[in-house]
Amino acid sequence: MSDSTSTTRRTTLKGLTAGAFWLAADRALAQDDKAAITVLVGAASSMDFTARMIADQLTESLGRPAITLSKLGAGQRIALAEARHAAPDGRTLLFATNGPFCIYPHIYTRLDYDPDRDFTPIAGVSNFDVAVATGPATGAQDMKQMIAWAKAKGKDAVFGSAPGNGSLSQFFGISISLATHTPMEHVPYKDSGVGIIDLAAGRLPMMITGLQPLVEMHKNGKIRILAVSGEQRSPLVPEVPTLKETGINLSSSTTTGLFGPARMSPKLVAKLHDALAPMFTKPATLEKMRQQGMTPAYTDGKTLAASLVSERKHFGMLVKASGYVPQET
């Protein structure tokens, strides 16, 4: 499809009333049932892996090609911008974490999107934990020893996070600092791989990031995962306790979901939601998700939307308590 055709389609759909608009969008999708569906993803690693499984399932269920397109950078906001400006005809979808919807409204003074009005939640897909890890810089064997080391170091105690500023990892670290009355400085890493290398080399005392990238080096003994953030232990590292089990009463997981642009018709949303459902009945697929650190959590769009509202309130309180100063961009 040419750029001019796509622009005409967006302009035509934009000028219609809600009922006629939805009918036109549904017809556009039905009339061009060979056009590819693009699933945008703005984060790498486990997110990209899961996005490809989503695309494969949509291809199987709908009998039309679905592909993934990585739009990395700006904390997923590049992918969000492209999805937000797409026509609401089901051809452009977004697979994203809850960060842009729940955390960013509290850490930026100005956003170029509205997390509620500019997107249509289609389905909840998964949850994943972050983990707290250390290396030779501390030699800590558990969270008690880690916190004792940090208290002894005073102003020299730092923790790294990826994907850095404004991420769940950062605010989970701040939460640990507040809960244990242990001041710790934050060092942002855009990429977890670089942070993990610094951790293993002893240049960084503590790292908080998604669990899956830490597992291999943990099993090789180069770093040590001290706790996971969820309510339950992870099957990837069943020997590692939850943070609550260590005596620190905190838990948090990252929600992921499939979204479309605003003003998608309920009929189209239901069609895409139902097309994804078989993915969560396949044991082999679910096991692949778990091996990536993802816990399958299939829900409908309304449930996803409600969870994002609740999580946004939670992060609002956390950001305020942390003393974080919102940034302009």
Radius of gyration: 21 Å
Helix run count? 12
General shape: globular
**Oligomeric grouping of the chains:** single chain
The structure class reads alpha/beta
Beta-strand portion reads 15-25%
Please provide the ordered H/E string of secondary-structure elements: HHEHEHEHEHEHEHEHEEHHEH
Distance between the termini: 33 Å
Q: How would a textbook summarize the main sheet?
A: 10 strands, mixed
Uncertain runs:
none
Q: What is the typical, i.e. mean, pLDDT?
A: 90
Overview of the structural elements:
It is a single chain. With 329 residues, the protein is an alpha/beta fold. It has twelve helices and ten strands. Strands 1, 2, 3, 4, 5, 6, 7, 8, 9 and 10 form a ten-stranded mixed β-sheet that branches. Strand 5, helix 7 (168-180) and strand 6 form a beta-alpha-beta unit. Helix 5 (99-107) runs parallel beside helix 12 and helix 7 crosses helix 12. It is globular. The two termini are 33 Å apart.
